[in-house]
Design brief:
alpha+beta; 2 domains; three-stranded antiparallel beta sheet; 6 helices; 6 strands; 43% helix; binds zinc ion
Length: 138
């Protein structure tokens, strides 16, 4: 745990972001689990360890991280943003039955090369929808 917070601290320092307990804890959680979380889920996960943490702080901190390029915001789930630690660009597979989200490696540069010139890309998200192996067995 101590070690993880140190890593999160270095990431903040690299981006010139002042360290604070909520920032360290959020970044640590996002980088340690390598999952895809809603702000609500992150808030719930940290509530026991940081009872003073407000939902607003979680939202604001996540936005701050997105602006700084530490975290990516995804819109794959209808009506709810999900956040993941920035890592090499990948596509996502979302299971329509259990909502599980899995990273799918992809060559984003090759795909971007197919976009006709003159079209300005504002967001880059690629995803597949289907049924995961666990759900398929049922
Ligand atoms: Zn599933
Ligand atoms: Zn992902």
């Amino acid at each position: 745990m101590e070690q993880d917070l140190k890593k999160a601290g270095l990431m903040l320092k690299e981006k010139g972001i002042r360290q604070s307990q909520p920032r360290l804890m959020l970044l640590d959680l996002l980088t340690r689990e390598y999952g895809h979380f809603s702000a609500e889920e992150l808030y719930e996960s940290l509530r026991d360890a940081a009872p003073a943490l407000s939902k607003t702080t979680v939202y604001n901190t996540l936005e701050h991280f997105v602006q700084a390029g530490l975290v990516r915001r995804l819109t794959i789930r209808q009506g709810e943003a999900l956040y993941e630690a920035a890592r090499p660009v990948h596509a996502h597979f979302i299971c329509e039955r259990c909502s599980r989200i899995v990273d799918v490696p992809m060559d984003m540069d090759a795909l971007l090369g197919q976009v006709p010139s003159g079209y300005e890309i504002l967001r880059k998200e690629v995803y597949f929808r289907g049924v995961c192996p666990q759900c398929d067995k049922r």
